[in-house]
Amino acid sequence: MSGTLVIRGARLSDGTATDIVVTDGVISELGVSLSAAGSQVIDADGLIALPGLVDLHTHLREPGLEQSETVLSGSRAAAIGGFTAVHAMANTLPVADTAGVVEQVKSLGDSAGYVTVRPVGAVTVGLAGQQLAELGAMASSRARVRVFSDDGKCVSDALLMRRALEYVKAFDGVIAQHAQEPRLTEGAQMNEGTLSGQLGLAGWPAVAEEAIIARDVLLAEHVGSRIHICHVSTAGSVDVIRWAKSRGIAVTAEVTPHHLLLDEHLIRGYDAKYKVNPPLRRAEDVQALREGLADGTIDIVATDHAPHPLESKDCEWDVAAFGMVGLESALSVVQASVVDTGHLQWSDVARVLSSAPAAIGRMDGYSTGIAVGGAANLALYDASVSTVFSASQLRGKSVNSPYLGHTLPGRIIGTIHNGYLTVVDGELVDTDQVASSALVTERGAHHG
């Protein structure tokens, strides 16, 4: 990128008001009353400037499932949500279990341009849980894969999991486990408990998640490797991870926005937009997840953005697909669930939604801080507004959001990826453009 952008009067996550000068895609200056000849100037008074958000858990569906999402449509949804980097899960068709497929996903992301797309490689061939995929080949490919996951399926074979943990040590990789003991969840439809009995739906016990986490942190300790736990959903899981960290085990964990805000009582209406894997849990679990995120037991928030075509969700509960879209709404849900409730400060949000996921994903050279010399990846956020969330706010191909009709706080005003404005005043722009006159006009910016 060429040219200069001045973002004036933004508030950093620590509360400091500052101007931010972006030159050729890099943050070149921070300070007060800054200007640059011939620059585009954005009035960001009243906006929070966060480092560009990073999602460690996104389903972009391409190749093979383009009726639900593509890398381009998912990248556009991510940009609208303030994300500048996403990790694309491996459950595509064909599965991303070879160097060729992960390189294809990376190329599609590079062409889309809205965000940095990092492919996640499968742990096992075809996600079948029978033999290890080409972990080394994917790691040494142009995609430089460092995160491997069979997400959507659990690596339930303990010996295979041990071998995977041993293998990725050679290139500092991480196995991201979908913790779900399959024998305990056959036919499961919702959280197991009193409510599942009342509704006549097969229960999904918390222990099915907790037992796999307990096994895997012990395996990680035994072989001296890194393990990451996807979409933690129960209070017991938080306890197990907290114990593992107290022993010095190299475990990290994520929680989704929907598990921080929603609970199982929403299922009373049998609305399949609330059907997700792992399922919505008890209110007590929601509280434990918030506390676990606040005390650092849970390291990051990740969306588990899982788009599905309308016919897969607009149907009877028992045949509906599991999953929710979440890129566009993530920051608003985080504000509602843990910022407005006093669990996190905005500086914590910058950590759990930007720097920590980038570190777990080993995004070497990807700057997630707002500092001179760093890449200009930024999200400008208005935390003072609230809106009724609607399908018109979604930019992906699918509309299976659990928040439709819910009032959510906050709004992404602008997103900057590697110095390019990709979102202005909440709307996508052509990624070939350096700046947008719409933002200049509507937020009172001027040329300096």
Name the poorly predicted regions.
434-448
Number of domains: 2
Total helices: the number is: 13
The rounded distance between the terminal residues' Cα atoms is 19 Å
CATH fold descriptor of the largest domain = TIM Barrel
For the sheet with most strands, the description reads: 9 strands, mixed
The proportion of residues forming helix, as a percent range, comes to 25-40%
Strand tally is 19
Mean pLDDT: 94
Q: Which structural category fits the helices and strands?
A: alpha/beta
**CATH-assigned homologous superfamily of the largest domain:** Metal-dependent hydrolases
Top-tier CATH class of the largest domain: Alpha Beta
* CATH architecture identity of the largest domain: Alpha-Beta Barrel
User: How much of the sequence is in beta strands?
Assistant: 15-25%
Can you offer a commentary on this structure?
The protein has helices spanning 71-80, 99-112, 135-140, 158-168, 194-199, 207-223, 235-246, 257-261, 283-294, 310-313, 330-339, 346-360, 437-442, and strands at residues 4-12, 17-23, 26-31, 40-43, 48-51, 53-58, 83-88, 116-119, 147-148, 174-177, 190-191, 203-204, 227-229, 251-255, 300-301, 378-388, 407-417, 420-424, 427-428. It is an alpha/beta fold. The strands form 4 sheets. Strands 1, 2, 3, 4, 5, 16, 17, 18 and 19 form a 9-stranded mixed beta sheet that branches. Strand 11, helix 5 and strand 12 (203-204) form a beta-alpha-beta unit. Helix 1 packs across helix 2 (99-112). The longest helix has 17 residues, at 207-223.
